[in-house]
Amino acid sequence: MASTQAFKDRNFIGVIGDEDTVTGMLLAGIGHVRESDKERNFMVVDGKTSDEAIEKVFDDFTAGRKDLAIVLINQHIAERIRYKVDTFVEAFPAILEIPSKDHPYDPEMDSVLKRVRRLFGE
């Protein structure tokens, strides 16, 4: 009972991605903005976005917010903060690396698949 109580309020998906990815996810209906503090569950990353800004949003999505169940991040953006993505080991939110229009998915770089391979001794 206690375990379901801890995660029952995780209703949203967070997205850190390029403009096309975030736009597609918003059109799919994942967008949420809190009226009280204008906090969003998405971040558009472009060439001018600093790694520190991406890290700040990643930290906020993973540690600061208790309403996110999944965080989707473009794999090429995850590479910019790879040490943060690789060291995140909590069950919630689940971190999923996804491809973008201009950057195909590379399973060799995916932190989840790396962990699975280590578990199976590969």
From TrEMBL:
Lipid bilayer topology: Peripheral membrane protein
Key word Membrane present: yes
Claim: Magnesium is one of the keywords in the record: no
Gene Ontology cellular component annotations, sorted alphabetically: fungal-type vacuole membrane; vacuolar proton-transporting V-type ATPase, V1 domain
UniProt keyword annotations, A-Z: Hydrogen ion transport, Ion transport, Membrane, Transport, Vacuole
Subcellular location: Vacuole membrane
Highest taxon in the source lineage: Eukaryota
Pfam families noted in UniProt: ATP-synt_F
Annotated SUPFAM superfamilies: AtpF-like
Record's subunit section: V-ATPase is a heteromultimeric enzyme composed of a peripheral catalytic V1 complex (components A to H) attached to an integral membrane V0 proton pore complex (components: a, c, c', c'', d, e, f and VOA1).
Family under the similarity heading: Belongs to the V-ATPase F subunit family.
PANTHER family documented for this protein: V-TYPE PROTON ATPASE SUBUNIT F, VACUOLAR ATP SYNTHASE SUBUNIT F
Functional note: Subunit of the V1 complex of vacuolar(H+)-ATPase (V-ATPase), a multisubunit enzyme composed of a peripheral complex (V1) that hydrolyzes ATP and a membrane integral complex (V0) that translocates protons. V-ATPase is responsible for acidifying and maintaining the pH of intracellular compartments.
Protein known as: V-type proton ATPase subunit F
Protein species of origin: Tortispora caseinolytica NRRL Y-17796
